[in-house]
Amino acid sequence: MATYKRILLKLSGEALMADKPYGIDTQRLIEYAEQVKEAANLGVKIGIVIGGGNIFRGLRGVSAGFDRVKGDYMGMLATVINGLAIASALESIGAKARVLTAIGMEPVGERYSKQKVEDAFANGEIVIFTFGTGNPYFTTDTASALRAVEMDAEVLLKGTRVDGVYTADPEKDPKAVKFDEITFDEAYTRGLNVMDMTSFTMCKENNLPVIVFDMNQKGNLKRLLSGEKIGSLVKVK
């Protein structure tokens, strides 16, 4: 039996690059799809939000002279490309997936609505939310918090390349200490970069716990959902 029945899985677009300088590493893509399928086989209803940083990140465009709004739309379009890639990878290994977009983009994907999410879950499909919130100035972290609340997720799982929340960046500071559990308030007070403030506040106000874990370790998602203590839990109290 799975610990959670409904989850929102937030994935980093940059993680899809693996060792490539940009774009999508097909091996990493299939590894992620296999982990998601394993989780779905436990009976878990899964929504996925993925970033677009492996293709284009809006804020980087601004630093290069792009208009912020146009840059953000370019970044949101990148999430659609990644979402289609994940859907295709899932379908190639026998899973069912549905791509929803925050704005009308038929036939690329269906326009998002909560009812379509419920219909997809009833049909045994994994739902992939793309194009962020549909608005500039909002990150895919915020989109993941919003969609998680809307789909009545029990937890937001943030799959990263590190195995949890630390006192400092463990890739830069060898003395960084990992938290098994931490409250939203403590994480904010310590200035820990778990998620952006908008998404962080939404999770806290809706009592939605966040688990940060290493998605690049094969089998971690299934182990987490099976009750193993994987990653770091961020909670209200």
Could you describe the 3D structure shown?
The structure is a single chain. It contains eight helices and eleven strands. It is α/β, with parallel strands linked by helices. It has a single domain (6-235), classed as 3-Layer(aba) Sandwich (Carbamate kinase), CATH 3.40.1160.10. The strands form two sheets. A nine-stranded mixed β-sheet has the order 4-3-5-2-1-6-10-11-9, sandwiched between helices. α1 (26-41) packs across α3.
Task: Determine Rg (CA atoms, Å).
Answer: 17 Å
The appropriate CATH architecture is 3-Layer(aba) Sandwich
Work out the helicity level.
25-40%
With strands numbered from the N-terminus, the spatial order across the biggest sheet is: 4-3-5-2-1-6-10-11-9
Average pLDDT over all residues: 95
Number of helices: 8
Report the CATH C-level class: Alpha Beta
Q: In angstroms, what separates the terminal alpha carbons? A: 26 Å
Largest sheet properties: 9 strands, mixed
Which features characterize this protein?
single chain, 237 residues, alpha/beta, Carbamate kinase, two-stranded antiparallel ribbon, globular
